[in-house]
Amino acid sequence: MTELVGMEGDVTITQDLFAFKYDATAYSEEVKGTYESAALRPAFSQRAQYYGLEDTLLEAMQP
Q1: C-alpha span between 1 and 16 (Å, rounded)
Q2: Helix (H/G/I), strand (E/B), else coil: 26
Q3: How many CB atoms are closer than 10 A to CB 55?
Q4: Would you call 58 helix, strand, or coil by DSSP?
Q5: Exposure string over 10-33, b if 16+ CB within 10 A, otherwise e
Q6: Alpha-carbon distances, residue 38 vs 25, 28, 49, 51 (angstroms)
Q7: Domain locations in the chain?
Q8: Residue 53: what pLDDT?
């Protein structure tokens, strides 16, 4: 999961919040793995704070 943080000229600035880590031991037809948090504070955390959801957001972002 990637957050769009802003723009610098024609360049889009992004920040990875979660990454999918593939489980190489899974031998079935299904893709297995887990999403791991990057443990970064999202740029939209101030907006979450405005709505009283910052603690919930940061708890969800814990590795």
Answers
A1: 6
A2: coil
A3: 10
A4: helix
A5: eeeeeeebbeeeeeeeeeeeeeee
A6: 23, 28, 20, 23
A7: 2-60
A8: 92
Give burial (CB, 10 Å; 0-12/13-18/19+) of 2. Answer: exposed
Q: What is the pLDDT of residues 30-50, one digit of tens each?
A: 888 888 888 888 888 888 999
Cβ atoms of 4 and 12 within 8 Å: the answer is yes
Q: How far apart are the first and last CA of the chain?
A: 14
Confirm whether pTM is higher than 0.70.
Answer: no
Which tokens is 51 given? 């709505």
